[in-house]
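Known limitations

Structure tokens in this collection are predictions and should be treated as such. Users comparing against experimental data should check residue numbering before alignment. To illustrate the layout, the record for 3-methyl-2-oxobutanoate dehydrogenase (2-methylpropanoyl-transferring) is reproduced below. The input appears on top and the generated tokens appear beneath it.
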Amino acid sequence: MMSDGKLTTNQIDASELSFDDFKLIVINDYKIAFESRQASLLGRKEVLTGKAKFGIFGDGKEVPQIAMAKAFKKGDWRSGYYRDQTFAFATGIATIKEFFAQLYANPSVEADPSSAGRQMNCHFATRSLNEDGSWKDLTDIKNCSSDIAPTGGQMARLVGLAYASKLFRQNPELDYLKNFSVNGNEVAFGTIGNASTSEGVFFEAFNAAGVLQVPMAISVWDDGYGISVPAKYQTTKEDISEILKGFQREEGTNGYEIFKVKGWDYPALCETYQKAIDVCRTDHVPVLIHVTEVTQPQGHSTSGSHERYKEKNRLEWEKEHDCILQMRKWMIESAISTDEDLTALEEEAKVYVKNIQKEAWNEFLESIKQEQSEVINMINAFGNDSPMLTKISAQLASTPDALRREVISTARKAIRLSVNMPSTERDVLVKWYQKQAGINEEKYSSKLFTEGKESPFLVNVIPAEYSESSKMIDGRELLNACFDSNFGRDQRLVAFGEDLGHIGDVNQGFAGLQAKYGDLRVTDTGIREMTIIGQGIGLAMRGLRPIAEIQYLDYLLFALNILSDDLASLSYRTKAGQKAPVIVRTRGHRLEGVWHSGSPMAVILGSLRGLHICVPRNMTQAAGMYNTLFRSDEPALVIECLNGYRLKEKLPDNVGEFTIPLGKAEIIKAGTDLTVVTYGSTLRIVEEAAEELEQLGISIEIIDPQTILPFDMDQLCKKSLQKTNKLLVVDEDVPGGATAFILQQILEEQQGYYLLDAQPKTLTAKAHRPPYGSDGDYFSKPSVDDVIEAVYAMMNESNPQQFPDLFN
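Generated tokens:
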């Protein structure tokens, strides 16, 4: 037990414990399980009575999770799903009060340390970071990576959390990172429901861990259903451990140790978990614990009842095999406790949980009630002569448990209704609301990025330096020199991906670096984009600096779920409690064919808010961006230009040191007639077009935003429009793709609309993917001819006499 009265579980070592000590541990475990069940039952009632929006609970899994918690040590990591509340209670990762605070969406980090009210209940996380974004001592914490709702998505990250232990154990250069690992002894615990083992990410992660041989312990909670769909429609043979038998390691092979145990058998569960985790921790091999015959007494969630789809005999079986009931019977039969004593314990637990729930609810309402009272008083101070204002004030006053949205909505309505009633008292309400708008922005919309002391925006800007001896080399060689310099400087850097290690990636950016730095730091992977990204997330959460390579931008789509659901939202959904500074390296834009020339920037912009999106025009710019990112702690996607690796560039003398600031656009060519905003591979096309346009008497200003997220923080585009009053945006995405975002940024955010004297235009690729061959590229993506004619047409609209129509 914990000294502050919060219950946690302890290991059972029969060789050292007296029977009395053993009884105390078991009774304490039962109390944790019973309190957790009461939290589930009460939580469901709170949703059905309208106090909470939605509930999903871990009832039926209490006893196996207590057994798992006994094997969980400081420094270990969990990557689970939303049924693990008993494990959270038993390890001390969360308290019952925090459980209810999250259920009510309390936006306080103190009340809900997991997510500050940003996640649904049972989505747990420990806070890995201090207020300034620096790391805590993760070896002194029982760590829980932030849960996500997609039921198999946690598996990708789990691979990286376990892989970190392998690197810490096998790479002595990492010994100095004392706050992140103790000799790589940490186990990464993963949990998943049986139905979700049907998902591709489960099989991908399972295979990856078997190949890597990492200390990863997967627990499958098998209750026979996936919402209403029984196992016969989910899993071949209706048994996940049966079909995974081929992964069982044998002498001379890699693989898993596979265990199977019933979810209502407390002593067998404790024994199985102790044995499984000992093997995992000692031998550094992955294990699977298939926990069968688990029940789900309240069904899937508060959105429906399981009586609708379970047969009567199944419901009766579940009632009989409830793990808490079975543990209770075993305790009485084993003389660990009596029926009377357990009944008394249960009654006490019911009262305790109910009191905790009331405390959490009252604390949630406390600050809102204060705001409610303030708004009522402010409206009444000037609205007594207005029936409408009196009415909305009375409505708010008669709402006993008003939510913050009702309070703020009333204030806004009062401001609107009183727009023609100026007074000092009304000004007080307006100023109050404006102040609250900032407070609520912080409560509900802050920390998309960590914004700590290692923010990329705090990295010193160091220009590239050149001398008379600076060589002209291929772009791929320049990148190679950048990576080489940084890998020599920072032992935390690791890189992995398909074909990255032995051959140095398909475009030779890592050529020779595996031989120089070893295959623990520069590593080949299988074809498994989801777990390449997950590998990066897990490593980054444990203090390393991974470069996760996706071979082509088109293949990023295979990992989009992990990038979007997990990585992009991590800082936001923990309110900067966790970070994963992964650098996702890929290459895209112009090459050949449907799947090697994509530029799906709209997909990326729509799904990856929370990553910096870097679009360097050449390898010098890419190197400068990498140098910035290597020295900061926020995740990013860097898209190198596929057709730039063999173009000649001058090698900076400080190739591993110079930095390119994020969000800073650059004027590539000054001009007076028209502003062209473009990035990546199309920038060279626009530069070429500018030469012929000069011959036609047209001077264009070319702006490279360099990063799309963030976009042009110094508003160079707006400043350019003050000169040219005309705007063309060029890129290789589909019509209305990234160009729509860029227009929104320039016309709306930068207020460039007011500077235009002509309709803004876009020049993009066609709506289809590019066909194969040079002709396909020419006719489906912007060409030099297209740029020249698009610019000329805009000038024709403005001054048809000087620029007569080309085709009329």
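For this record: The chain has a mean pLDDT of 96. The two ends are 87 Å apart (CA to CA). Please report discrepancies through the issue tracker.
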